[in-house]
């Protein structure tokens, strides 16, 4: 029998890793780990590029987009958001790009509301959510895909968006985290972080493999 270690101190060493699926926006690998007690176990991990999302606040209202999500076969209210799928792109630049593309907005003031790991049980996706203020309307680029062409945007008072969460009308986890964090910051209960705050949980496995294979700058183009 293996020797048990004190709870919370075991090193989960990876002894083998196998790539199971490689697709444009994600991959799946299977890792073999040494577990407490010395036994081996496997874990399937969905690899992701990471993403950014934006709470765009005009002093009273925030911008929400409504987008079809085939996983649940419904249109969901969400924050303007997108993948960090351009090689080595700074997260703030990605957020600025997505805000322009999805909402036709630019912002003069940016801060970091929260970083969240969306599904840590099986996926390394992490999302940085920004607060954008001092907004100006700009020309939204032409939609690049069918889903984006179907997307709509509306303005909601921040208090109404917050209430939509508790009414079950906003179910997207990134939107929930961002809206509640923005509500706390704007009310003065907490302070947002600066945009230079380290994005500790930004995923690297998928991006580093794509870059090593020369799939740049758009790492989705297998």
UniProtKB/TrEMBL annotation:
Enumerate the UniProt keywords alphabetically.
Hydrolase
Query: Nudix hydrolase domain: which residues?
Result: 47-178
PROSITE patterns membership: NUDIX
List, in alphabetical order, the Gene Ontology terms for molecular function in this entry: hydrolase activity
Q: Which GO terms describe its cellular component?
A: cytosol
Signal peptide start-end: none
* A single BP term in Gene Ontology: nucleoside phosphate metabolic process
Among its keywords, does the record have Hydrolase? yes
Supply the Pfam families for this chain: NUDIX (PF00293)
Name used for this protein in its record: Nudix hydrolase domain-containing protein
């Amino acid at each position: 029998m293996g020797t048990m270690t004190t709870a919370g101190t075991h090193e989960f060493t990876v002894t083998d890793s196998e790539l199971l699926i490689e697709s444009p926006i994600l991959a799946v690998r299977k890792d073999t780990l040494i577990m407490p007690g010395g036994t081996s176990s496997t874990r399937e991990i969905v690899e992701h590029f990471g993403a950014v999302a934006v709470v765009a606040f005009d002093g009273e209202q925030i911008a929400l987009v409504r987008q079809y999500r085939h996983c649940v076969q419904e249109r969901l209210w969400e924050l303007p958001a997108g993948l960090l799928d351009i090689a080595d792109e700074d997260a703030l630049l990605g957020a600025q790009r997505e805000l322009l593309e999805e909402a036709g907005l630019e912002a003069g003031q940016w801060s970091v509301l929260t970083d969240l790991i969306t599904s840590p049980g099986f996926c390394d996706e992490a999302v940085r959510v920004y607060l954008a203020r001092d907004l100006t309307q700009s020309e939204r680029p032409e939609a690049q895909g069918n889903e984006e062409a179907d997307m709509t945007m509306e303005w909601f008072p921040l208090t109404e968006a917050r209430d939509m969460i508790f009414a079950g009308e906003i179910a997207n986890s990134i939107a929930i985290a961002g809206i509640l964090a923005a509500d706390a910051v704007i009310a003065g209960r907490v302070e947002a972080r600066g945009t230079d705050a380290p994005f500790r949980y930004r995923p690297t496995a998928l991006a580093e493999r794509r870059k090593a294979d020369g799939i740049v700058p758009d790492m989705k183009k297998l």
